[in-house]
Amino acid sequence: MIAxxxxxxxxxxxxxxxxxxxxxAGVAEHMSNGGIDLxxxxxxxxxxxxxxxxxxxRLEEIVDTEAVTVGQVMRRDVxxxxxxxxxxxxxxxxxxxxxxxxxxxxxxxxxxxxxALAAMRILAExxxxxxxxxxxxxxxxxxxVHLADQLKHVADLAGATLSGKTDAVAQLRSRGVMLxxxxxxxxxxxxxxxAPALGDTPGFGPLRKQQLxxxxxxxxxxxxxxxxxxxxxxxxxxxxxxxxxxxxxxIRDDMAQEERDLLDPNLLTDELINVSFSG
Length: 279
Ligand SMILES: [Fe+2]
Ligand SMILES: [Fe+2]
Fold this sequence. Notes:
By secondary structure, this protein is of the alpha/beta class.
């Protein structure tokens, strides 16, 4: 049962947290440069909240980030769970306290976090008593729409960088890091929900599943390698922009092929008998 899995296997790891009293500016810069989506916040050592990259982006436009502290703008709907806790215990803790995020503690360190939304997605997976084939298809297509937006954004920044706009470079590097991470997360979701759904398709189901997992393993190692190069600041601006443009083209092709071959509504159908793909 997925609900019995330890939270440590399902959380996003975290090695950076901040005190509520520090100004937002430095933290915002660190998040942006490191492509960090969420930062846990402590007061007197006790976890009290978290900052989301999406919130920070909005705040940067409306407040003086040097003048406000993290504690003034953080979200407070947080709870803590121990690193050995099971997913079910983390979900209960979030539900009882109304928290949107569970911070995972290996006392005294905060070692990771899990959002309520991510927990719901994990619990909704097939095998957890969850999604039908058509629901899997809808969820993956939805992720593709979101990724297509991210790809366009990175392609625009890479284009601007290559045409000499130096103010695009910092954003290109941080958005590039975020894109690599989102693509890795997408592979994880597809492995967890699309692979089993494909395995159940008629005809060559097990082969489709096996090919998807093998292709993702290859993609994952390439993405991780490129991510660590980018995170370590390697490569000139032009090299980074060119590599990201190549990545955008490859991922666009890959998504189109996946949508054509694997996300066909006649293949991922809730009907029991499937004529078109049964050969
Ligand atoms: Fe994929
Ligand atoms: Fe995909």
